[in-house]
Task: inverse folding
């Protein structure tokens, strides 16, 4: 939106051309989202408290979590508002990839909102039935996959690339691409949702992964950088950097209130949306496998749940004291801040490994 304004103003004063630079707009988008989150956050928390939209705590979890009962939830709406405003203000709104990324994020946020609404407002402890949740997630994920396939400008936008290997691309047909894209988006969405169990545990890895994906978006959308790094060139992908920058800014703004001890939780509205956002950006920049590396904490949390359920059903025994695995470490005696910070450190290391794939080919 503002890009068009500055392009017009540049006709009168050339200094406004600086706002055409992608990196400057990304910084301004991050600062815009961060400012909105910090300014709107206290008001939103008060409104959630007034309406008694608070966290419901499992009675089979760590005793320390009982004190979280009633903490305002659905704070993920703050993240979505900050991301949306930041993106609309600073991105090139003529870019198809920006709209696909933003549309997927808001669609999954709407699904999460309805689930939270049923749990916290209607007081239905089960929320949105799992089959309906997965159905609508599948619809949104497949719609995104279809949009990306139909608007793809070349085979480089639909092939599967393997990190650490140069000049290796596995072509995918329409069916394979759409199923794989659906799997990445829906899987990433639910993985982040499973991770969101401790104060700040999920949001900081989301911020770090989004920042790294922004780097991939920038170089993937630049024909010379892409050629030098021997990664696929995707026209228009650079503009997605603005979108990922808003995730960073909004996420840090939300962390201001979500850090231990949390004043607000993001709820499904935030977790499902952020996971989907990371998934769709990874698909756009053709780095789905790198996302699995950088988002290793999300993968670990998901695998721990799958193994726990499978073990209990097959053997009648649990592998972990409690799943997802962050609760296992709490029950082993780790203080909640220790679990959170150590998982952050692991995420940081994995993000660096993911970024290293840009050169190690």
Result:
């Amino acid at each position: 939106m503002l890009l068009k304004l500055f392009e017009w103003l540049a006709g009168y004063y050339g200094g406004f051309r600086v706002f055409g630079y992608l990196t400057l707009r990304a910084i301004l988008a991050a600062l815009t989202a961060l400012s909105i989150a910090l300014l709107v956050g206290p008001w939103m928390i008060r409104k959630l408290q007034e309406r008694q939209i608070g966290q419901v705590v499992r009675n089979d979890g760590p005793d320390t979590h009982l004190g979280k009962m009633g903490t305002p939830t659905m704070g993920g709406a703050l993240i979505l508002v900050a991301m949306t405003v930041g993106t609309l203000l600073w991105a090139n709104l003529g870019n198809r990839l920006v709209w696909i990324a933003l549309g997927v994020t808001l669609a999954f946020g709407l699904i999460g909102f309805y689930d939270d609404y049923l749990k916290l407002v209607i007081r239905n402890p089960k929320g949105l039935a799992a089959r309906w949740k997965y159905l609508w997630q599948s619809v949104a994920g497949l719609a995104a996959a279809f949009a990306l396939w139909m608007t793809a400008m070349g085979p480089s936008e639909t092939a599967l690339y393997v990190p650490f290997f140069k000049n290796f691309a596995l072509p995918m047909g329409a069916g394979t691409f759409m199923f794989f894209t659906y799997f990445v988006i829906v899987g990433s969405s639910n993985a982040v949702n499973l991770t969101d169990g401790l104060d700040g545990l999920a949001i900081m890895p989301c911020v770090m992964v989004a920042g790294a994906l922004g780097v991939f978006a920038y170089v993937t959308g630049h024909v010379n950088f892409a050629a030098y790094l021997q990664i696929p060139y995707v026209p228009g992908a650079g503009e997605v950097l603005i979108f990922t920058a808003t995730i960073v800014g909004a996420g840090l703004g939300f962390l201001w209130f979500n850090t231990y001890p949390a004043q607000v939780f993001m709820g499904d509205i935030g977790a499902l949306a952020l996971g989907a956002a990371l998934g769709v950006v990874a698909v756009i920049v053709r780095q789905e496998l790198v996302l699995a590396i950088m988002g290793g904490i999300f993968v670990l949390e998901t695998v721990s749940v799958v193994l726990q359920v499978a073990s209990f059903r097959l053997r009648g025994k649990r592998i972990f004291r409690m799943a997802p695995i962050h609760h296992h470490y709490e029950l082993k005696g780790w203080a909640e801040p220790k679990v959170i910070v150590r998982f952050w450190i692991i995420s940081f290391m994995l993000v660096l490994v993911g970024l290293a794939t840009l050169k190690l080919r």
Q: What stands out?
A: Residues 57 and 65 are 7 Å apart (CA to CA). The longest helix spans residues 22-50.
